[in-house]
Design brief:
Layout (H helix, E strand, L loop, with lengths): L2 H14 L13 H9 L7 E5 L6 H7 L4 E6 L2 H11 L6 E5 L7 H4 L5 E7 L8 H14 E12 L6 E2 L2 E2 L5 H8 L3 E12 L5 E11 L1
Parallel strand pairs: 1-2, 1-4, 2-3, 4-5
Antiparallel strand pairs: 5-9, 6-7, 8-9
Helix pairs in contact: 1-4
Length: 211
């Protein structure tokens, strides 16, 4: 998908739907929260949520005492919904409106590298090998040694499409292969996500450490 088409697609999604209507919506992002907490970092750790959309994860991380949070999404509409929901607390978050596969890494790490990179349901939308390579390069650049990567994608038994787009389904082994030798897999989980329309989507969550 061309850059402009990709952005247009996601802007249209958030123009036509509110956050609670999109298929990936979770009122309580339990797996993500538990995996962030399993990383064992303190409240001053730098955490970035990639393609967060209007996810509620940032709300719960703020409530848990995490202070250095960055939310990145390609769609301005998604960011605006999240900022509106957070109200006065939105100023406690750094907001980046970018396509992670096109973002200059110097911009990504302008304030320093991250301790945790979280991605639920972005990577599986990248079907072009070049985009996959750019994403992995960004992860490698953004995470310091010993930092952790949390990635959730559709599993091998998950949907073949989402939001009208083709996706790539993964296993922990195939995600590990995509990331290469710079990351070590330390934990996996599965999740049966029920969408707002009551459809079932099987996710896998993988937690890696940056070597």
């Amino acid at each position: 998908m061309l850059d402009s088409n990709r952005k247009y697609h996601w802007e249209q999604v958030y123009q036509n739907k509110i956050a609670t209507e999109v298929s990936w919506y979770q009122q309580h992002p339990e797996c993500s929260l538990e995996l962030v907490q399993a990383c064992g970092v303190g409240g001053t750790a730098r955490i970035i949520d990639i393609g967060a959309g209007a996810s509620t994860l940032v709300d719960y991380l703020l409530a848990a005492g995490y202070q250095n949070l960055t939310v990145l999404d390609i769609a301005r509409g998604a960011i605006e919904q999240a900022r509106s929901r957070l109200g006065k607390h939105a100023d406690r978050v750094v907001w980046l409106e970018h396509d992670i596969t096109r973002l200059d890494t110097t911009t990504l790490v302008a304030d320093g590298k991250y301790d945790i990179w979280h991605d639920r349901a972005v990577f599986h939308f990248l079907t072009d090998p070049h985009d996959q390579e750019k994403y992995v390069s960004a992860v490698c650049c953004a995470l310091k040694p010993g930092a952790q990567l949390i990635m959730a994608t559709f599993g091998l038994d998950g949907p073949e499409k989402c939001s009208g787009l083709e996706i790539v389904r993964y296993s922990p082994e195939t995600i590990s292969a995509m990331l290469g030798d710079s990351f070590q897999l330390i934990e996996t989980r599965t999740e049966k996500h029920v969408t707002p329309s009551s459809a079932l989507q099987n996710f896998i969550y993988c937690r890696f450490i940056r070597l």
